[in-house]
Amino acid sequence: MTVGVVVPAAGAGSRLGPGTPKALRELAGEPLLVHAVRRIRSCPSVGPVVVVAPAAELARVQALLPGTTVVAGGTERQDSVAAGLAALPAEVDTVLVHDAARALVPVEVVEAVVAALLGGALAVVPVLPLADTVKQVTPGGVVVRTVPREELRAVQTPQGFRRDVLEAAHRAAAGSVTDDAGLVEAAGVTVTTVPGSPLAFKVTTPFDLLVAGAVLRG
Question: Which of 6, 55, 149, 191 is most buried (most C-beta within 10 Å)?
Answer without folding.
Answer: 6
